[in-house]
Specification:
The complex is a heterodimer.
Chain A: H1 2-35, H2 49-58, H3 65-77, H4 92-127, H5 131-146, H6 149-163, H7 175-205, H8 208-215, H9 220-249, H10 252-257, H11 263-273, H12 276-304, H13 310-321
Chain B: E1 2-5, E2 10-13, E3 34-39, H1 54-63, E4 68-70, E5 76-78, E6 81-86, E7 92-97, H2 110-120, H3 139-143, E8 154-158, E9 161-165, H4 173-176, H5 187-192, E10 206-212, E11 216-221, E12 235-240, H6 243-252, E13 257-259, H7 267-275, E14 280-292, H8 302-310, H9 314-321, E15 327-328, H10 350-364, H11 368-371, E16 375-379, H12 382-399, E17 404-408, H13 410-418, E18 424-430, H14 437-440, H15 458-469, H16 473-490, E19 493-505
Parallel strand pairs in B: 3-12, 16-17, 16-18
Antiparallel strand pairs in B: 1-2, 2-6, 4-5, 6-7, 7-9, 8-9, 10-11, 11-12, 13-19, 14-18, 14-19, 15-19
Helix pairs in contact in B: 8-10, 9-12, 15-16
The chains are: A mainly alpha, B alpha+beta.
Chain lengths: ~325, ~525
């Protein structure tokens, strides 16, 4: 009962913090995108003055900045993000509804690949922390974290789509088309998780309570699962928030290489085109997703480690995210 | 084309020639009638009234058909019009429409044309190329609100007859009627379901099956199209694919066409296709040039403009920055549009350039240092950056001055150029229609949408106005030639090169070629 009350209190407090964070992010995005030079309608053949005036008026770009700002904030809190300035037949809501499932499917595949991989690899390298196995594991981890995803993507494409034509080169639509991009997206977080888990496990393994457990004669498996793993995994969970958001919301480079119509593509094109409603809408979507993720991760962390003060943790992670 | 001259009217019977060549091939070489093309990410609309950019225009031309079509040499061929009657003063065109249906089975009516054209004259439609309609009587006045739409010279007399009255005898009017601006849209659909994609019902060789932004555009053969039997392909898929991946997919055979006018080919693709002799080129009616701000120092001095122009080694730019693709531009109008430009200059002359530069300095009583800083703006890309660096080096060698290079993304670049917040800037222009006016008209007036140089010349404007009234083709050509002479003498722009279309296709699309306007033929 006390636990449920604590959680409710935490969620309520977090809700208000999130509202404030969204407001701050939305305001910063609005003023930043208005500060970039360039017009969404500028082309080599400039539009006729009448047409340009009609366009600016239609999209409310002639209104004073404060009026535009209030309208934008209102649109955010009413979840009606308006029409795209460039893709005139689509609204930002439609764009998100269309592209997010694509990025999310790809991201989900990458996530279920990177999590177990990272954990197995991390535990393995922590248990064998000396000798050639250690050198091998460490080099692999560093390699995976430092090689950019586009290099991995293009190498995988060359190897498994051209040299050994097992998977399609690109495009989106069926499972086999998602394999290579999912692996490309999964490698960096998998290696990062592995490295994180390894250092945490080494730290935990050196703790006195582990030695006590050993002296008590507990089995190695029991020590690993109940004592080592449970404690070593908490920092990994904290890292999962931003990683899940990044992976699920889309990585532009990997989407571009494999011709995947996800959110990443929209993000970059919106900025290039100065498509203000799309920039604003997508930034907001990304932030909300990140905030919700953090909240869930904080809750899970609290359940795993009751010693952690849920409320103080909640505040610190929100601050870092915004 | 059959031309009948009578005392009262000029009668252009277009009955005898049929269809555009792309859709007129007797047989496609391969049995497969499905083709896949690479598309760069630039399609934001397929509404013919709002489309711009070569890739979107290319797709819209597969979906829609205007009153006329134009072949690769610029000859006018029939489209929806079966015959065209032109009044002796060449100011009234009466189009008789052939029996035809939209892809949803509706009859194509003259009112569909009237509706489409007139809707672009209302600023609310936000049509980017509505200026192309200004050849029609009172069209410009209607757009700026000084005349009503009823007074505009577009009238559907009955379902099959459209009468168009022009402001001036515009000898290239039948070229204009082949551009997307002059395409019809299904009036019923536009009025009853304005929320629907206007391209979902079309009257051309193909109809839109699906369109997923950033992914694919799928066209299917339009069985309602009058020459449907001659359309060589059943489906056309445009896949939005990155340069490297597109090259790989083309090599694997999953794409049948890569490159102009729908996408670019990356450096790796260019060199490997070239090595395998698979790279094809076709001259484009397009020019890459430098815009000069003639309103500010030092380029308000014509001698400085001439000196900078003379110093440019155009051939070096083509070989070093364009991998040899393109041809030296001595004039602004590409040769395929019929004007000659050999007389302007044949090669660069660094020595004379330096001389002119020194003269200009002493005329202005200025030192080199006082000229500076001169900035050169361009849109960030590998090619333009290379060109800018070559020019920077050339001008430094000729005039001992350091030009500052300023690269920006397209949205801020165009805004800067539009506001004339620049000294030197790059520019590129592709013909909308097969006539020198498509190029020369840009500089007809100071305030024209693509002028942006602050330059105007009363004699130049007079010559272009006169060319619109001139009905004799030879005399008209001479007037246009004189206009280009003035432009090349005054140099508000410095033409660098005429573009080439670069593409690779496989045997399925072997017989398809590209017209200078970028239309598949």
């Amino acid at each position: 009962m006390i636990m449920a009350f604590e959680v409710l209190k935490f969620l309520l407090k977090r809700f208000f913090v999130c509202i404030f964070a969204i407001f701050a992010i939305a305001s910063a995005t609005f003023f930043l995108m208005k500060a970039i030079p360039g017009s969404p309608f500028a082309e080599e053949q400039m539009l006729l003055p009448e047409t340009l005036a009609a366009l600016n008026k239609h999209y409310g770009l002639t209104d004073p900045l404060d009026v535009q700002y209030i309208r934008y904030i209102k649109s955010i809190f009413s979840f009606e993000l308006g029409p795209s300035l460039k893709y005139t037949s689509q609204t930002v809501n439609q764009i998100i509804l269309g592209a997010f499932p694509v990025s999310a499917t790809l991201g989900f595949e990458a996530l279920i690949l990177s999590l177990p991989l990272g954990m197995i690899f991390g535990s393995f390298s922590a248990l064998y922390s000396t000798g050639w196995k250690n050198v091998f594991a460490c080099s692999l981890g560093v390699f995976g974290v430092s090689v950019p995803s586009f290099v991995i993507a293009m190498s995988l494409q060359f190897l498994f789509a051209i040299y050994f034509p097992i998977f399609p080169v690109a495009q989106w639509g069926n499972f086999s088309q998602s394999v290579l991009p999912a692996i490309s997206l999964a490698i960096a977080p998998a290696c990062f998780i592995a490295r994180l888990l390894r250092s945490n496990m080494l730290e935990v393994l050196g703790m006195q309570y582990i030695q006590t457990a050993r002296m008590k004669g507990l089995s190695k498996t029991r020590i690993m699962t109940v004592h080592v793993w449970k404690n070593a995994i908490i920092p990994v969970l904290a890292y999962l928030g931003p990683v899940i958001t990044n992976i699920l919301v889309g990585s532009f480079v990997v989407e571009r290489i494999f011709g995947i119509p996800g959110l990443g593509q929209w993000f970059v094109h919106a900025v290039i085109n100065r498509d203000y409603p799309v920039i604003g809408g997508l930034t907001l979507f990304y932030s909300v997703f990140l905030l919700i993720n953090h909240t869930i991760i904080d809750l899970v962390t609290a359940f795993l480690n009751p010693a952690a003060k849920i409320i103080s943790q909640g505040q610190s992670s929100t601050e870092s995210s915004s | 084309m059959k031309l009948l001259l009578s005392r009262a009217v000029t009668f252009l019977a277009l009955l005898l020639v049929t269809g555009c060549t792309l859709f007129n091939q007797k047989s496609a070489k391969s049995n497969s009638r499905e083709i896949k093309l690479a598309l760069s990410d630039s399609i934001t609309t397929l509404d013919p009234r709002k489309t711009h950019g070569m890739a979107s225009v290319g797709i819209v031309q597969m979906l829609f058909e205007g009153l006329t079509r134009v072949d690769s040499k610029g000859n006018v061929m029939p489209g929806v019009a079966k015959s065209i009657r032109i009044s002796p003063d060449m100011k009234t065109y009466t189009f008789s429409l052939k029996e035809g249906k939209w892809s949803n089975g509706d009859l194509i009516k003259a009112t569909d044309f009237e509706y489409s054209w007139k809707s672009q004259l209302s600023a609310e439609t936000r049509a980017p190329a509505s200026y192309l309609l200004f050849a029609i009587k009172s069209a410009e006045e209607a757009l700026n609100g000084t005349s009503s739409l009823d007074q505009v010279g577009i009238k559907a007399i009955d379902d099959k007859t459209l009468v168009v009255t022009l402001e001036n005898p515009t000898p290239y009017f039948l070229q204009l009627t082949a551009t997307p601006t002059y395409f019809p849209v299904n009036k019923k659909l536009a009025e009853e379901h304005p929320e629907n994609h206007i391209a979902s019902v079309s009257n051309g060789p193909f109809s839109l099956n699906s369109w997923k932004p950033h992914e694919t555009i799928l066209l299917k053969k339009n069985s309602s199209y009058s020459s449907a039997d001659e359309v060589p392909f059943d489906t056309v898929t445009f896949s939005i694919i990155d340069g490297h991946t597109a090259t790989t997919m083309f090599k694997q055979g999953t794409l049948d066409w890569i490159g102009s006018p729908f996408s670019g080919i990356n450096q790796e693709g260019l060199s490997s296709f070239k090595a395998e002799s698979r790279l094809k080129t076709a001259p484009a009616a397009g020019t890459f040039f430098l815009r000069v701000n003639t309103e500010t120092s030092p380029f308000n001095n014509p001698k400085i403009r001439q000196a900078f122009d003379l110093a440019i080694d155009r051939q070096a730019i083509i070989s070093e920055a364009m991998t040899g693709e393109g041809s030296v531009a001595t004039g602004f109008v590409p040769p395929s549009l019929g004007l000659s430009s050999d007389q302007y200059k044949t090669s660069y002359d660094a020595l004379k350039a330096t001389q002119l530069f020194e003269e200009a300095l002493s005329d202005m009583h200025m030192t080199r240092e006082q000229l500076l800083p001169i900035t050169f703006c361009f849109i960030a890309s590998d090619t333009t950056k290379k060109i800018a660096e070559i020019l920077q080096k050339t001008w430094k060698a000729a005039f001992e001055i350091e030009i500052i290079l300023e690269e920006s993304d397209s949205a801020s670049f165009y805004e800067k150029v539009f506001l004339k917040d620049y000294t030197l800037a790059t520019g590129s222009w592709f013909a909308d229609y097969f006539d020198p006016m498509s190029f020369l008209s840009i500089f007809q007036y100071k305030a024209d949408g693509a002028n942006d140089t602050g330059w105007s010349n009363t004699e130049y404007t007079r010559l272009l106005d006169a060319s619109c009234l001139e009905t004799d083709p030879q005399k008209r050509k001479a007037l246009l030639q004189q206009a280009q002479d003035i432009l090349m003498n005054d140099l508000p722009i410095m033409p660098i090169l005429h573009f080439s279309f670069v593409y690779a296709n496989n045997e399925k699309m072997e017989e398809v070629t590209l017209s200078p306007l970028g239309t598949l033929q």
